[in-house]
Each structure stands twice: as structure tokens, then as C-alpha cells.
Amino acid sequence: MKSYEVNFDGLVGPTHNYGGLSYGNVASQSNSQQSSNPKEAALQGLAKMKALMEMGFQQGVLAPQERPDVAALRRLGFAGSDAQVIERAAKDAMPLLVASCSASSMWVANAATVSPSADTADGRVHFTAANLNCKYHRSIEHPTTSRVLGAMFADQQHFAHHAALPAVAQFGDEGAANHTRFCRDYGQAGVEFFVFGRSAFDTRYPAPQKYPARQTLEASQAVARLHGLSDDGVVYAQQNPSVIDQGVFHNDVIAVGNGEVLFYHEDAFLETDKMLAELDAKLGKRGGNFQSICVPRSQVAVEDAVRSYLFNSQLLSRADGSMLLIVPEECRGNERVWQYLQGLTSSGGLIREVKVFDLKQSMQNGGGPACLRLRVALNQTELAAVNPGVIMTAPLYGTLTQWVDKHYRDRLSENDLADPQLLLECRTALDELTQILKLGAVYPFQIN
Hints:
The protein has 18 helices and 15 strands. It has a single domain, classed as 5-stranded Propeller (L-arginine/glycine Amidinotransferase, Chain A), CATH 3.75.10. 35% of the residues lie in helices and 17% in strands.
């Protein structure tokens, strides 16, 4: 039976803004307080989805969240009508209003961790929504994320959903941004690769000194247990604390994997040789031939990798067995990174082509091509069981671009977030979107 890796891209929400909320994310902080263009951001993301679909890749879409999150503000003591809650938050605690308006759910690499049926004990595809408890503006996402994923992957014969881990520091979980999977074929048993920044309970593991390590070893282990993964199909690796302190807030900012290949920076991990040997041995036992591409620091410094988001790229398998790398425009704008990529693709190695996409609106807030997609490996039967409304087609692309043009603003500043009309615009747009994507009632305003 044929199997596929389906990329479900996050649709940028109507309140996309530059709040500078993510400490440790250099791009997010450096562009704080600038005016954003939600319409352009959404259209840029849709253009990438359409392009990959036209290249022959399976592509889906994952809906944004209701923002501002008035219910979250009510839990923090703001009372009255929705308009009054927004007005009082803007007057007394503007940072909380900004956080409640964040469109960060667009980066669905953080939405969940996904294990394909070939790896799990019960033969179903497993999803665990990420608690994202390191950042308040992201910690409020997982209840809606779980409902949206449940509406997309509803058939319990094929899909299993787990609630987010306990929202405490010891189980900080950032989803697929710190998880990848190696396999010979998407439908065959593979090796799931969990990368953590620190251990909550074992002091033998060093921790970064400047920026927080968002993923714990204990969270990764808990997800592996929930998904019914076997020990011989899992590898845990620690992210290098020094690169976290240089702005590598997730592993997908310094490494990306697909199929049998890991593309990574020389400074990405601790005990790299040991990790590579374990991946090679475990994948070999499952019929795979593990291969790695190390980018030397002498050619690309960590700083250049962070600024260009070289590794926050999509590494895609083509029909001829070669690989395609999808990178943001910022890679072409960095001389050292672009020179490296030109050499990489001309060498006749595994990665034969690089395609560049303009994702400036997302990039300025600290998320590139890989942040915008959640990878789900599905066989033909499972793909047929996915809600068909979320699978990208040419007609759906046309409908969604019209929907964005109708509902989104082309400029949004911090002061605009205090406008109660923005909430009404968002709810009107999302109510229409759930009908387009056939999701049913997934948002609080539709349920309550």
C-alpha cells in the first residue's frame, strides 16, 4: 500500500502581529512593535501550499485560532462584555492583550507530535497536542488545537488523540519542532528522533544559561509512551545548550530530517557521534540506510543559520529518490548560506535542488517554512479517512484566497489590537472558515 508524508500547513490568522512575545527567538524580538500585514502573511503561506501541491506533494491546511482569546483574559480577572474585557485589558495590561491576540498557532510544527501507524503499538496514527507551556501566548493554544486535529482526523479506527501533557515546566513540550522521523519508506516502521533541551530531573544534562530550553527529556519520553513506541524505534538526543543561547529555540532551527537523511549543523547536538551511531544502528535494523549531511561551522556560522533559517527548511523526497529543499528568501539574502547551498546542490549529493519562497511576514516573527507545517505520514487508507475538506486542491486554494481577501486587514499595529471590532472580524471569518474546511464547531464562540 502506498504511503505519503502529508504536510498540513498552518493558515495565518487574522490577528497576525509582531508582539515580540517569544524570548529566545531572535527574529520575534528584533521585529517587535512593527506593523504587520495579516493579509499578505496568509497569502504568502497559501502560495507555498499551492506550489507544493502543484509539485505533486500531498498538502493540507490547518485552521488558525480564535483571537483575541477573550476567555483567557476572563480567567485573568477581566470582566464585562467581550468589548469591555478587551478595553480593560488594553488599559491595564496591554502585554496580556497582545499575548491573547497572538497568531502564533500558524506555526503548526508546534501544534503536536505525530507518530505514524507503522511505529505505534496499536497500528493507529497518534497525535499529542503540545502544551507549549514555556510561553503564555502559546500555552493557551492546545485546547483548540486538540479540537481542530480531532475534526481533521476523526476516524477512531485510524487515529488516536492524546491531551497535552501537564502544563508544568518539567513537561515542557513544543511538539514536532523537536521531533522528526527516519524511515526507508513512509509506510514502514521507522525511528522517531526526539530532541530535548534539558532534563527536568537529571542534573547530568547541562542547560543553557541565557535562553530557556523549551523541550524536556521527560516530555519527549512521555509522548513516546503515549504513542506506544518501542525502545528500538526511538532515539533521544540533547540539543547543544550553547546554540540555544544563540537563538536556536527549537531543534528545527538547526536541523531537519526526512526519509533516511538528517541535515544538521555541526554544533546542533551534544554527543553527536554517539547519536548518529544509534540512529544508524536502529534504522538499519528496520531496513533503512541512515545518511547525514553535516554543515560545518567554518562554512555556515550558527548566527548565519539563525538569521537565514537555513535549517527551518522543508526537506522533501521526490519520485526519483533525490531531495528538494524548500528555504525562505532570507537564505538567498545571506551570502555565506547561499554559497553553501549552491555548492550542496551542485555536488551531485542527496539534495539536488533548492526552491526559495517569500515568507517575510512569518519570518519577521520568527518562523520559516518548516515552522508552518505539521508532517503526518499516512497510508492510502488513512489518507482517505482524513476530513477531505482540509486537503489542498486548486478550488480550495481559490476559495481560501478569496476568504482572506474578504476578511483580513492589510495592516495591524499594537493599537489596533484594542479595537473590539477585530474580535468580531475574526469570529466572522473563522465561522465561515469552518464551513469551508468542513470542521464543524471547533472554536469557543461556536461551542459556548
